[in-house]
Design goal:
The protein is built from 3 helices and no strands. It is mostly helical and 64 residues long. Helix 1 runs antiparallel to helix 3. The chain starts with 10 loop residues before the first helix and ends with a helix.
Length: 64
């Protein structure tokens, strides 16, 4: 078995998933402000975002 390098997801895909599931997030860049960098989110939103990201990773792997 060989170790195939894993390509990092695009920033635009990550931002798309984040803004879809966490409506208060405008960017994934650090803005050095607690009120802008930390968000209260529901666990079900975190789960949904992780599931979507996982599915996107599986789809990308299937294309290779």
């Amino acid at each position: 078995m060989t170790n195939t390098p894993v390509k990092a997801p695009s920033e635009s895909l990550l931002l798309e998933i984040a803004t879809k599931h966490f409506h208060s997030i405008e960017t994934l860049e650090t803005r050095k402000s607690d009120s802008l960098d930390f968000h209260d989110v529901a666990v079900w939103s975190i789960r949904a975002a992780l599931e979507e990201a996982f599915a996107a990773g599986q789809a990308a792997a299937a294309k290779r």
